[in-house]
Amino acid sequence: MANKYVYTFGGGKAEGKAQMKNLLGGKGANLAEMSNLGIPVPAGFTISTEVCTYFYDHKRQYPPELTQQIDDAMAKVEKVMGRKFNDLEHPLLVSVRSGARVSMPGMMDTVLNLGINDEIVKVIEKDNPRAAWDCYRRFIQMYGDVVLDIRPRTKSEVDPFESVIEKIKKRRGVTFDVELELDDLKELVSEFKKLVKQRTKKPFPQNPRDQLWGAIGAVIESWHNERAKVYRRINKIPEEWGTAVNVQAMVFGNFGDDCATGVGFSRNPSNGDKNLYGEYLINAQGEDVVAGIRTPLDFADLQKNNPKIYKELETIVRKLEKHYKDMQDVEFTIEHGRLWMLQTRNGKRTGFATCRIAVDMVKEKLVTEKDALTRLIPDANALDQLLKPVFDPASIEHAKKEGRHLASGLAAGPGAACGRVVFHADDAAAMAAKGNHVILVRHETSPEDIGGMEVADGILTALGGQTSHAALVARQMGKVCVAGCSDLSVNYGTKTAIFKGRKVRQGEYISLNGFLGDVYEGEIKVMPSEVKQGLFGTAAQRKGASQSKTFQAYTQLMKWADKYRTMNVRANADQPDQAELAVAYGAEGIGLCRTEHMFFGGDRIKAVQEMILANDKEGREKALAKLLPMQRSDFFGILKAMGSRPVTIRLLDPPLHEFLPTNHKEIVELSKDIGQPAKTLKAKLQSLKEFNPMLGHRGCRLGVVFPEIYLMQARAIIEAALDVQKKHKIKVKPEIMIPLVGHWKELNFLRGEIEKLIDEIKDAKKLKIQIGTMIELPRAAVTADEIAAVADFFSFGTNDLTQTTFGLSRDDAGKFLPHYVQNGILPEDPFVSIDSNGVGQLVRMGTEKGRSVNDKLKVGICGEHGGDPASIHFCQTVGLNYVSCSPPRLSVARLAAAQAALIAEAAK
Amino acid sequence: MANKYVYTFGGGKAEGKAQMKNLLGGKGANLAEMSNLGIPVPAGFTISTEVCTYFYDHKRQYPPELTQQIDDAMAKVEKVMGRKFNDLEHPLLVSVRSGARVSMPGMMDTVLNLGINDEIVKVIEKDNPRAAWDCYRRFIQMYGDVVLDIRPRTKSEVDPFESVIEKIKKRRGVTFDVELELDDLKELVSEFKKLVKQRTKKPFPQNPRDQLWGAIGAVIESWHNERAKVYRRINKIPEEWGTAVNVQAMVFGNFGDDCATGVGFSRNPSNGDKNLYGEYLINAQGEDVVAGIRTPLDFADLQKNNPKIYKELETIVRKLEKHYKDMQDVEFTIEHGRLWMLQTRNGKRTGFATCRIAVDMVKEKLVTEKDALTRLIPDANALDQLLKPVFDPASIEHAKKEGRHLASGLAAGPGAACGRVVFHADDAAAMAAKGNHVILVRHETSPEDIGGMEVADGILTALGGQTSHAALVARQMGKVCVAGCSDLSVNYGTKTAIFKGRKVRQGEYISLNGFLGDVYEGEIKVMPSEVKQGLFGTAAQRKGASQSKTFQAYTQLMKWADKYRTMNVRANADQPDQAELAVAYGAEGIGLCRTEHMFFGGDRIKAVQEMILANDKEGREKALAKLLPMQRSDFFGILKAMGSRPVTIRLLDPPLHEFLPTNHKEIVELSKDIGQPAKTLKAKLQSLKEFNPMLGHRGCRLGVVFPEIYLMQARAIIEAALDVQKKHKIKVKPEIMIPLVGHWKELNFLRGEIEKLIDEIKDAKKLKIQIGTMIELPRAAVTADEIAAVADFFSFGTNDLTQTTFGLSRDDAGKFLPHYVQNGILPEDPFVSIDSNGVGQLVRMGTEKGRSVNDKLKVGICGEHGGDPASIHFCQTVGLNYVSCSPPRLSVARLAAAQAALIAEAAK
Questions:
Q1: Which of A828, A885, B230, B737 is most buried per CB count within 10 Å?
Q2: Interval A543-561 mean pLDDT
């Protein structure tokens, strides 16, 4: 028996089906599937990928059986459609499209209207003369381009077909193609044929069979063109896959007022409502919708104008939704009152709709909870949108109309914010104290701006990428942030910001759209999201939110996520209010409580500076004694807020010079405060300066050289824990984390010092405080077995681990990382999503080696990656105990953890 | 049969031997070995380590057999020595010493003269009253300290025994103990006994058996004291090893003029001559030599005064040398005309003597070539001394007498140098151009100082450690360097250096001792070493050197080293003269030719700056076109010098801002040169500034963003190679190395660009240029399998790999790394010797993964570690193809590679 190379579909049945993607390509398999469902799909056939493979294996020869099989298939199509290919009575036109397993740029895409020629156009003309000639001229142009390769020969040349069209349009004084009249179209056909003759030295093929074989050949050849090859290499798509070729009967939406073309969704893609949603154009083709000359009608009109067709469409769409178990995005054409479906696929939708639809479909028993969590919400980030403040729709419309858009930058912290412009942290504090909303505008931010960022509603910087200081801190704080706004120039002296010449002074209003990175002049009204109202609003807001379908969907999803996930989810939080936020968002503990942010507050920074500038241990201890009660009260608040949940507190990490002033005025002031001459102070500051602060005297290196600093912090933790326990009868679980350990002896030494302290303080031993370390240096990962012998837990600090593993400074990467991502050298910013092949290997190695010597070792991750869904999936495969992220990312993290667990379960 | 716990020695035989170290400890095994050789060793016995183990396993009880075995052993000792323990006729005194397998600080060390008491002292008194009482008082003091634990109770308290002595000396108006007279000594004994009574509440033990058991117990208990435990933990010495106890008959060198004590070497430890070499004191004890009150006599005197004893000593020493097959360092005592050997061990010696002795002993057929290379030169660094210039001995003596020592710093580049002080690179060049020797004095150095360092004889900096820029560059250039001289303060404005108040002006002479880190005022004459004269001197010098035993030994050792080593040895060299030097030192290729140093020369830096500051690719290419001929001529010189040896050329690595000026004046000048306003220029400079330049836009990241830079360099290499090949008929082997690759796509992209260039240039393909990469980022090591698929070779850049693996900036580590090493957190500076457990794991992983996909992959190392013996041993275990180091380190590297190969062979 001969091999089967051709698979027909149409007329309520098909030889293929959805599962035959490898053989039929994505498109072919889908068309077959729709036919099998009895959906009215224009009939056609798919030439399988085996033909492509055969072709290249046999010196570009087709299998001998192919011609007959195509002829047989065409006969079936003709029968279903009631038309004949190459026929002068009821001519059948077809489209020819490529169709690999995955969609692939660079492949030949589509030839429409194939089968028309000088004779046949005259037959079709009887139906609609203008449409017939428009078909013909479009066919020659498309075929000329993709099959005959008639394209611009130099970069500066315009498309040769387009230049013919332009000439005629110019002569006729019209702007759009649709304005051309019948005679113009006929002239176009004639000119196009001349162009083909001139470029190919042959007349345009008149025989539809020749046209067909030409198009089939072009699809198969395009599998091996340069762009396709490059794409395959980069995306690791095997050459052997090959492409299928789809030949399908044409149907026309532009042959009269009983014709139409449209697109639609089975549910509202913006809010998830279960209503058919879409638009259509009468007597038009798909590309007319794109051209945007005529305003499409909506489905309410269709229902009114043609209730029968609407009803039919609704039935089909519901059937498709039920079949594919997902919201569908369809394309259809009405040809002389008959509905044809051209395509269906899972529809794109907003985060709001994603969540709503997932929950609704479970309720409708269309999908299971597990399906809803994984398949219907492929990207957990969708949840993020539900939490962010938004602009009042009327207010933003108004601003746009008034032309108040100033500039765009990176959308570095989602949400909407509006406030008065300030340029310094202290101005921000002063202005906010008066009850103003403020937007902190900086060239770039540094740890000294923390206070200002805290009181600001939004942060705008001229420099910095997605992982700049501003972006990172803003995301942790849940602040709206636009970073790297290159059209912004900041003058701190005159306290003005200039956006492409437009000046904004301190105190004037601007508004930031952190979803999109836009900056607007003046005020735009901001509203909290329904989910936030539901979680943190006033009683009235909560009640209102409880009626909101979005909020209901959110809480339902979180319930399911918590049910299925196996990893714990913790938050990175440094202060009691952040800890409370974390709990509301479902945190099961704190994975990273940074103590350095606590060092920047008003009085504290002075004591910190005094400590740093002390000439000996005695001086340091004197200053540390001042800090102790402050730190203790910080920890008291956090531990109380977290109750009996574990709280991992990281001891001081950044280099000491970060706490010192840099400008003359501040130095002079400080010199008065601590009673040292400014000159001495400057020399000291100079001596603390570092070439590469990232790799300098920081982390546990501070603790090793100045154990008194860490011991003060440890004492504050212990005493605070004992206080909370006594006053609030809560069994608190503080954990002490030593940062930047590279060698087990560092941790061993510091652990010893802290254990001595625990022995000294009454009842401290009963707290059973765990002592562990960040794994954030490659050396720590490769020697994790040594380190685990003296650690109770590991927490992968993947921000720093990425920096050191790649040898890449987060602060400096902005100069070349975008170029890398744009040019495909790196698939994405490794600070956003973990580099599983490189950094990830070290995480895996560190975990395995650590557990090999300490089977009780608790292992988590507390870098920014802890809130990134792809990274969370990776963490599941490594078998981590928890992920920790900024509080507003917790919803995403909970969902992503559930998805990861379900995928792991399914893979078993 | 009872277990044997006690092993006797003496009288020409022993129950133990050298191989029984585990049982008898190092000392005990050695004493047994000497006895077996028939060497006159005072008789004694060793209580085995099993007793110690038993003791701790049995609740601090001794094995029941022990008492009898000790009594039996003591009887044997008494018989050999002709004296009796606890005897009033011929009393035997003994010493008691600990003796673990390895010498261990913190253990009880020694009690001498044990067995004396109030009765026995009176017997000994008959021989020599003063000596007898001196024995007794020393015994009480030692026993009181180490057995009875009578020590200062607070840090400020002085030793209680010493305070008694001081009191008497003060009363008697004398300075030294030896000035005390008989009555004083008797009074001391009496006072000491009172002290013991007062502190222990018991009288001083008079029974010699009690004394003996007390001392044995103290030795065994000291195995578990705090210091010993800490030392064992740090050095990973198992607790189960235990310590042995050695009990040995005392002999006395201070009982008359027919008594003496001395130390000697079997060969001259400073130059290796095969003459007995040593000194002795008549009527004295070992510690009298140390006290330095009397001037010892040398062996010529001994030969004259007592030819019989001298002959006997010579025979013994030669016998020991022959037995131990190494130069011996012995201690001996003459008691009433009878020679006793107390100790023998392999002697310490200078690098010069090390090499001479190793070669001589092979010639004498005492050892094999392999033995000479490995055992007799345990540290290949010994060779280094042979190459360094030295001060003329008379001249340095003179300078010291005149008090011209100014300050001390780190010995960062060995050798001696003298020249006029300069503070700037251009002043250095100008002054050197006039024929002056110059010493470049800087607060610290940076790449801009390279020109100045090149013309200087020595470099002196106030800041920086062993791996500072100054130290690294100086060592590569083979310059004398003293770094981190904290007593130096540099004033660039007034061009003066101040050393603790002493001012030295530009143009005045200073002299540097880079062996020791000393700085002297004024001129001290410098001479090249004999080896350097032999390798690079004038014809006359070479002839002179060929007669020199040092030079002969050097060339012989190099010949043997090359015979046995399996790894290739290459040099790091950037310029033709360095390449020539490398060849003379035996380099088999260049492992690292850095191209950035070439960018700093006069005209070049301007073109480089123009290139960096260009606003577009066109501007960059214009500037690059100026650089091309210069780079080509650089490479021409190097390739020609290296002939057919491989030359690995690394493309531009440092961040571009390193090539730009930083001060206002230079910026203004540059702005004129390139015709851009100074303001624009400053903004541009600001934009190029980096927070962490080490992790910034450097290495292949420059090549990826600005491929034109790398392509200019590649073209220069290719064209130079073709030129050399054509003009000199040499089959050159250039290799192009891409730095700082972290992801295989970086290398893949750049390799593709360079291969396109090779295709373009006529005949370039025939050069078969290999293209490879540095592995200097952890990510490169863990993904080496991906990278190796597109690399012809790997070269581990372990300087940067250490920085990123540890997260440790070499430039900033000075602030805490010394503290780490001093406190045992790190065993040593990981930039000096490779951290085999951490960084080394990545080197091994990178090599194995790389070879797993590319079995032709050539793998080497080109960090500073390439010249460090311990690191070279590590490289051998990993199986690297070559090591590469600075030219002056090549001798050391060749030897170390041979040692590593021989050790690996022996381990098979």
A1: A885
A2: 92
Q: A860 with A884: CB under 8 angstroms? A: yes
Answer yes or no: is pLDDT of A373 > 90. yes
- Chain A to chain B, count of Cβ pairs less than 8 Å apart? 165
pLDDT at B449: 85
Count of CB atoms within 10 A of residue A827's CB? 15
| Residue A704, both tokens | 């090793």
Q: Is B777 on the interface with A (CB under 8 A)?
A: yes
Mean pLDDT of A13-30: 94
Q: Does residue A350 have a pLDDT over 60? A: yes
Q: For residues A883 and A592, is the Cβ–Cβ distance under 8 A? A: no
Distance from the Cα of A817 to chain B's closest Cα (Å) equals 9
Give the 3-state secondary structure of B97-152: EEECCCCCCCCCCEEEEECCCCCHHHHHCCCCHHHHHHHHHHHHHHHHHHCCCCCC
* C-beta atoms of A816 and B779 within 8 A: no
Interface test with B, best of A445, A657, A701 (most B CBs within 10 A): A701
- Taking only residues 111 to 140 of chain B, the set having a beta carbon closer than 8 angstroms to any beta carbon of chain A reads none
Tell which residue, B27, B168, B11, B16, has the closest CA to residue B95: B27
For an interface test with A, which of B815, B828, B849 has the most A Cβ atoms less than 10 Å from its Cβ? B815
Is the predicted pLDDT of residue B290 greater than 60, yes or no? no
Closest chain B C-alpha to A826 CA, distance in angstroms: 8
Indicate the pLDDT class of residue B516, thresholds 50, 70 and 90. Answer: confident
Residue B701: which of A694, A816, A842 has the nearest Cβ? Answer: A816
What ipTM was estimated for this complex?
A: 0.79
From the CB of residue B479, how many other CB atoms can be counted at a distance below 10 Å? 25
Q: CA of A746: which chain B residue's CA is closest?
A: B825
Which candidate from A694, A695, A704 shows the least CB-CB separation from B819? Answer: A704
A516 CB near a chain B CB, below 8 Å?
A: no
Split at pLDDT 50, 70, 90, the class of A234 is low
Is residue B407 classed as helix, strand or coil in its secondary structure?
Answer: strand
CB contact under 8 A, B778 and A842: yes
**DSSP code per residue over B413-463:** E-SEEEEEEE-SHHHHHHHHHTT--EEEEESS--GGGHHHHHH-SEEEESS
In angstroms, rounded to a whole number, what is the distance separating the alpha carbons of residues B333 and B342? 7
Residue pair A73/A45 in contact by the 8 Å Cβ criterion:
yes
Give, in order, the Cα–Cα distances in Å from B614 to each of B626, B662, B675: 13, 18, 11
Alpha-carbon distance of A111 to A94, in angstroms, equals: 8
- Whether residue A766 lies within 8 A of chain B, CB to CB, comes out as no
Residues 6+ apart with CB under 8 A from B306: B334
State residue B411's pLDDT score: 78
Rounded distance, CA A446 to CA A475, Å? 15
Angle at A535 between CA A533 and CA A541, to 5 degrees: 35
Report the distance separating Cα A677 and Cα B681, nearest Å: 35
B746–A809 C-beta distance less than 8 A: no
Say which of B740, B778, B808 has its CB closest to residue A805. B778
Question: Which residue in this structure is represented by tokens 């730095």?
Answer: B739
User: Which residue in the set A695, A805, A809 is minimally distant from B812, CB to CB?
Assistant: A695
Active site residues of A: 469, 862
The radius of gyration of chain A's CA atoms, rounded to the nearest angstrom, is 33
Question: In the predicted model, is pLDDT for residue A143 greater than 70?
Answer: yes
pLDDT (tens digit per residue) in A699-716: 999 999 999 999 999 999
* Chain A interface includes B288 (CB < 8 A): no
CB distance B880 to B860 below 8 Å: yes
Q: Which residues of A touch B740 (CB under 8 A)?
A: 807
The C-alpha atoms of residue B55 and residue B59 are separated, in whole angstroms, by 7
